[in-house]
């Protein structure tokens, strides 16, 4: 596996080594020891999967402490643009983002530590999105910002008129630093 650092500290793109022949392919998608050497200790508690159609945009979401989550995300079917926005108030990259194409073809994974908003948009006819998390979901801890926040300027690679969002995601507020937490607060656990 190849661990690629991004321009924001902590966010990693993981490219597995794919062995293929006429029968198909094989690749390791997660190896705890190798992962922890590159990303730090992790204890995944849950794995989730969603299926979405072309144009569906989910995000930008985070959970407030003590329910904040780190995520290891992948797309075994289809293609998405996956986005992580740094909202750690003590970070020099607060409000900056990294966007990564995840697809069944490139087999990449994206490691998103605690303290990042997360979202994705589907660019294929449909996509299956999988993510491992290191903390449980808590509805009362949900938080987010609007996908089109001009202070961030995410390039979703899709025109707005083609995007499909939930009613909840359409009314999320814009980014305000005072609504978020420090790196240490995001690391806290219940």
User: So, the CATH homologous superfamily?
Assistant: Jelly Rolls
CATH class placement: Mainly Beta
By DSSP (H or I, 4+ residues per run), the number of helices equals: 3
Basic shape? globular
Radius of gyration from CA coordinates: 16 Å
Most strands sheet? 6 strands, antiparallel
In CATH, the topology is named Jelly Rolls
Could you spell the SSE succession in H and E letters?
A: EEEEHEEEEEEEEEHH
Describe the structure.
The protein is about 10% helix and about 40% strand. The model has no long low-confidence stretch (mean pLDDT about 95). It has helices spanning about 30-40, 165-170, 185; strands at about 1-5, 10-15, 20, 25, 45-55, 55-65, 70-75, 80-85, 95-105, 110, 115-120, 125-135, 140-145. Strands 1-2-10-7-12-5 form a 6-stranded antiparallel β-sheet, with no helix packed on it. It has a single domain (about 45-185), classed as Jelly Rolls (Sandwich). The chain is mainly beta and about 190 residues long. Strand 1 (about 1-5) and strand 2 form a beta hairpin.
């Amino acid at each position: 596996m190849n661990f690629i650092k991004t321009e924001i500290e902590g966010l990693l793109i993981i490219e597995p080594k794919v062995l293929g022949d006429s029968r198909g392919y094989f690749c390791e998608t997660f190896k705890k020891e190798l992962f922890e050497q590159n990303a730090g200790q992790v204890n995944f508690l849950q794995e989730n999967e969603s299926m979405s159609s072309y144009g569906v945009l989910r995000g930008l979401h985070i959970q407030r402490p003590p329910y904040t989550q780190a995520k290891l995300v992948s797309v075994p079917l289809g293609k998405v643009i996956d986005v992580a926005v740094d909202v750690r108030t003590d970070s020099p990259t607060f409000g900056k983002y990294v966007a990564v194409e995840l697809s069944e073809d490139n087999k990449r994974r994206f490691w998103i530590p605690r303290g990042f908003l997360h979202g994705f948009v589907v660019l294929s006819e449909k996509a299956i999105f999988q993510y491992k998390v290191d903390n449980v979901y808590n509805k009362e801890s949900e938080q987010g910002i609007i996908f089109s926040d001009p202070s961030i300027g995410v390039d979703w690679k899709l025109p707005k008129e083609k995007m499909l969002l939930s009613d909840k995601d359409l009314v999320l507020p814009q980014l305000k630093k005072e609504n978020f937490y420090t790196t240490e607060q995001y690391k806290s656990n219940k």
